[in-house]
Amino acid sequence: MQAIGLIETRGLTPALEALDAMCKAANVKLVDFKRIGSGLVTVIVEGDVASVAAAVEAGVAAYARTGGELISSNVIPRPHPDLAKMLY
Protein backbone atom coordinates (compact mmCIF):
# COMPACT_ATOMS: atom_id res chain seq x y z
CA MET A 1 0.00 0.00 0.00
CA GLN A 2 1.49 3.31 -1.08
CA ALA A 3 -1.18 5.77 0.10
CA ILE A 4 -4.56 5.96 1.80
CA GLY A 5 -7.22 8.57 1.05
CA LEU A 6 -10.14 9.36 3.34
CA ILE A 7 -13.25 11.48 2.98
CA GLU A 8 -15.60 11.89 5.92
CA THR A 9 -19.07 13.25 5.22
CA ARG A 10 -22.44 13.72 6.80
CA GLY A 11 -24.91 11.54 4.90
CA LEU A 12 -24.75 8.29 2.95
CA THR A 13 -25.91 9.50 -0.46
CA PRO A 14 -23.34 12.30 -0.79
CA ALA A 15 -20.63 9.89 0.41
CA LEU A 16 -21.56 7.48 -2.37
CA GLU A 17 -21.43 10.36 -4.87
CA ALA A 18 -17.91 11.19 -3.65
CA LEU A 19 -16.83 7.54 -3.81
CA ASP A 20 -18.12 7.19 -7.37
CA ALA A 21 -16.15 10.28 -8.43
CA MET A 22 -13.03 9.03 -6.65
CA CYS A 23 -13.06 5.65 -8.38
CA LYS A 24 -13.73 7.19 -11.79
CA ALA A 25 -11.06 9.90 -11.45
CA ALA A 26 -8.06 7.72 -10.65
CA ASN A 27 -6.78 4.18 -10.30
CA VAL A 28 -7.78 3.61 -6.65
CA LYS A 29 -9.39 0.74 -4.81
CA LEU A 30 -12.09 0.97 -2.15
CA VAL A 31 -10.66 -0.24 1.15
CA ASP A 32 -13.56 0.36 3.49
CA PHE A 33 -16.77 2.27 3.97
CA LYS A 34 -17.57 3.05 7.60
CA ARG A 35 -20.80 4.38 9.09
CA ILE A 36 -19.65 5.99 12.30
CA GLY A 37 -22.92 7.27 13.74
CA SER A 38 -24.82 10.57 13.80
CA GLY A 39 -24.91 10.37 10.00
CA LEU A 40 -21.12 10.38 9.61
CA VAL A 41 -19.72 8.21 6.83
CA THR A 42 -16.05 7.68 6.00
CA VAL A 43 -14.87 6.39 2.63
CA ILE A 44 -11.32 4.96 2.48
CA VAL A 45 -9.43 4.25 -0.76
CA GLU A 46 -5.88 3.13 -1.51
CA GLY A 47 -3.45 3.35 -4.41
CA ASP A 48 -0.32 5.20 -5.41
CA VAL A 49 0.14 8.67 -3.92
CA ALA A 50 -0.71 10.66 -7.06
CA SER A 51 -3.82 8.60 -7.79
CA VAL A 52 -5.09 8.84 -4.22
CA ALA A 53 -4.49 12.60 -4.14
CA ALA A 54 -6.38 13.03 -7.44
CA ALA A 55 -9.18 10.77 -6.24
CA VAL A 56 -9.65 12.66 -2.96
CA GLU A 57 -9.66 15.97 -4.82
CA ALA A 58 -12.31 14.65 -7.24
CA GLY A 59 -14.34 13.21 -4.36
CA VAL A 60 -14.31 16.51 -2.48
CA ALA A 61 -15.39 18.38 -5.62
CA ALA A 62 -18.22 15.90 -6.28
CA TYR A 63 -19.34 16.12 -2.68
CA ALA A 64 -19.39 19.93 -2.84
CA ARG A 65 -21.85 19.72 -5.75
CA THR A 66 -24.31 17.82 -3.56
CA GLY A 67 -24.51 20.69 -1.09
CA GLY A 68 -23.74 18.37 1.81
CA GLU A 69 -21.48 18.89 4.79
CA LEU A 70 -17.92 17.72 4.25
CA ILE A 71 -16.36 16.92 7.62
CA SER A 72 -12.80 16.12 6.56
CA SER A 73 -10.56 14.76 3.82
CA ASN A 74 -7.00 13.49 4.01
CA VAL A 75 -4.28 11.71 2.03
CA ILE A 76 -1.77 9.64 3.98
CA PRO A 77 1.28 8.75 1.84
CA ARG A 78 3.24 5.65 2.87
CA PRO A 79 1.15 4.82 5.96
CA HIS A 80 2.75 2.84 8.76
CA PRO A 81 1.88 -0.89 8.61
CA ASP A 82 0.17 -0.68 12.00
CA LEU A 83 -2.25 1.89 10.58
CA ALA A 84 -3.20 -0.56 7.85
CA LYS A 85 -3.96 -3.18 10.51
CA MET A 86 -6.28 -0.73 12.21
CA LEU A 87 -8.16 0.09 8.99
CA TYR A 88 -8.61 -3.46 7.66
Largest beta-sheet characterization:
4 strands, antiparallel
**CATH domain class:** Alpha Beta
Q: Ends: how far apart?
A: 12 Å
CATH 2nd-level architecture: 2-Layer Sandwich
Derived structural class: alpha+beta
Can you offer a commentary on this structure?
The chain has 88 residues and is an alpha+beta fold. The chain has one domain (3-87): BMC (bacterial microcompartment) domain (Alpha-Beta Plaits). The protein contains 3 helices and 4 strands, in the order βαββαβα. A 4-stranded antiparallel beta sheet has the order 2-3-1-4, covered by helices on one side. The longest helix has 18 residues, at 49-66. The radius of gyration is 12 Å and the shape is globular. It starts with a strand and ends with a helix.
How would you summarize this macromolecular structure in one to three sentences?
The protein is α+β, with helices and mostly antiparallel strands. It has a single domain (3-87), classed as Alpha-Beta Plaits.
